[in-house]
Amino acid sequence: MKILLVDGTIFGRKTGVLLEQVQQYIQAFNPSLELEILYFSKLQHQILDGSPLNDDMKKMIQKFEEADAYIFASPIFQASIPGVLKNAFDMIPPKALRYKPAAIIGNGGTYQHHLVLENQLRPILDYFRCLVTPNYVYTHADHFDKENKIIDEDVHNRLRELARVFVQYCEMTKTLSKQAVDMQ
């Protein structure tokens, strides 16, 4: 089963660090899962404006289509997900994520920004009909040291629990995605 961990920003390292940590926890729960982190910072992005897509955007879309499940990590800027993440969602065919497990991780500069994950990112994933885990992890700059290492044990516990639930969602939905494709 292919799991795509999406670092939905081109700025900073905290969301990448969170994904790298949750990747380790997922591997501990199920080492047979094929995990890949897609760092948006390593792609040449373009705005969806009707022009032909560049190779990086084609590759990104292909990775979304081929994945069986997702973990989305997003920073919160100006009380919103980054435009580059929303632009990526605009490029993905609506059925590409259907009935596939997804989990959400976020990071922001205020503790109140956790609501952006619930009120902005989750509805987008619901539109795609992802099977979003009920738990998400939100972190704050205080949870990291100056080298962006996670220093808060509660954050580690919440990431570990997110990984555990996510792996269970993956197990529960192994046949669901295939059945949905067969019915189309």
Automatic annotation (TrEMBL):
Domain of life (superkingdom): Bacteria
Protein EC: 1.7.-.-
Keyword Chaperone: no
A single GO molecular function term of this UniProt record: oxidoreductase activity
Domain NADPH-dependent FMN reductase-like as annotated: residue spans: 1-141
Record keywords, A-Z: Flavoprotein, FMN, Oxidoreductase
Gene3D superfamilies, alphabetized: 3.40.50.360
InterPro entries: Flavoprotein-like_sf, FMN_Rdtase-like_dom, NAD(P)H-dep_FMN_reductase
Name the record gives this protein: FMN-dependent NADPH-azoreductase
